[in-house]
Amino acid sequence: MGLAMRAKTPIWDKNNKVIGVISLGYLNSKIDMWRSSQIFPLTSVLLIILFMLIFFSWQFSAHIKKQMMGMEPAEIARVQRQQDALFGAVFEGLLAVNTQGQITAINQNAQKMLKLDGPQKNLVGSLVQDLITPADYFLEASGTNRVDDLLMINGLKIIANRVGIWIDGEFQGWVISFRRHDEIHILSAQLSQIQQYVENLRTLRHEHLNWISTIGGLLQMKEYDRALKMVQSESSNQQSLIDSISSMFKNRLIAGLLFGKFHRAKELGLEMCFTPGCSLSAQPKPINENELASILGNLLDNAFEATLKNPDSNKIIECYISDEGQELVIEVSDNGLGIEPHISERIFTRGVTSKNNGGDHGIGLYLVKTYVDQYHGTVMLGDNEPCGTIFSIFIPKGKDGMKDEIS
């Protein structure tokens, strides 16, 4: 029969005696035939399974890599280290919040400024309203990006910027960067004082060059008496102006600002008048002197520009400042063309301006309104007679606190 695979087993009776043998076998040729008939389908199935495993593994790997923005694990680790270093190196406070109001990232400066205790890893995942008061600025479900908003959070006055996080067109939360207001305030004050000093020098230089040229001409013509009288008159006028401004405005920063603006108006062919009754103490309350200088500077600059645009105006700008009563009162009137009604309703909105060339305009009055709102003050806009606009500001001296939030 040929080679075969056999198995044998004995047959036992009830007395445990062998009474026979059972033999079972398969010819090797039949086994080979069965193996040949089964190996191809089995191999095909295994190859198909292997191909499918490779394909799905590749698809899964591509999906994971897409989720990781095409980066390898080593690259992700490097980016994470770079992000940690960047967060630590940024001077401003940085805070990221998701749509559920949970903090997803925070740097050391933010933690320090907001006086948040504990390790950063423990703060991540916390609800922002549990750590920051008020938290409305961080919890808007949607909205526009914000720039240089003045806020009061956790008892600290800050300047904040807010940028939305969008992934595949879906809003995911906010990134807020902020810095202490007093740091910006100091830099702004220093810059403002330098700019004021330079402007005053430039104006006086221009005025005195004309004056010196006149004196030089008189001296060449041997009109010595007239030259002497002109020197005495100019000196007397300057000293009279200085004495007048200094007597009305005891604060040296404000007095210096108004002295410079007076000469600037004169250079532009305008006349700047101080309304009788002006009076300002050395330390005006409740507003900071630098903020007051910013308000006056912006209002006067706008008044100069508006008056110059009106060829039929009397070229007079009037200014009134007083803190003698229960309120700090500021009033600046021009003789311009006035403000159009559709603009007057939004004139204090950032970026809105009545000037033809927008450019960087639309910030001055926004800052004025922001400073006034900090101290619970009021800004009023009215018509001047016979033409122009009057800006009136009233800041109560009894309320020197800030609003919780200005947005």
Kindly report the spatial arrangement of strands forming the biggest sheet. Answer: 4-3-7-6-5
Overall number of strands: 12
- Average predicted local confidence, pLDDT: 81
* Regions with little confidence, pLDDT below 50 for 5+ residues: 399-407
Q: What's the overall geometry?
A: rod-shaped
- What is the H/E order? EEHHEEHHHHEEEHHHEHEEHHEE
Structural class: alpha+beta
Number of helices in the DSSP assignment? 12
Description:
This protein has 407 residues and is of the alpha+beta class. α8 (224-248) crosses α9 (252-267) and α9 (252-267) packs parallel to α10. It has twelve helices and twelve strands. The strands form three sheets. Strands 4-3-7-6-5 form a five-stranded antiparallel β-sheet. The model is unreliable at 399-407 (pLDDT under 50). A hairpin with a 2-residue loop joins β5 (146-153) and β6. It folds into three domains: 4-67; 73-183, Beta-Lactamase (2-Layer Sandwich); 249-407, Heat Shock Protein 90, CATH 3.30.565. It is found in: Cell membrane.
Task: Give a quick set of tags describing it.
407 residues, alpha+beta, Beta-Lactamase, Heat Shock Protein 90, 3 domains, five-stranded antiparallel β-sheet
What's the topology here?
Elements: E1 4-12, E2 18-27, H1 28-67, H2 73-89, E3 93-98, E4 103-106, H3 108-113, H4 120-123, H5 128-131, H6 136-139, E5 146-153, E6 156-167, E7 170-180, H7 181-220, H8 224-248, H9 252-267, E8 271-274, H10 289-308, E9 316-322, E10 327-333, H11 341-344, H12 364-374, E11 378-383, E12 389-396
Parallel strand pairs: 8-9
Antiparallel strand pairs: 1-2, 3-4, 3-7, 5-6, 6-7, 9-10, 10-12, 11-12
Helix pairs in contact: 7-8, 7-9, 8-9, 9-10, 10-12
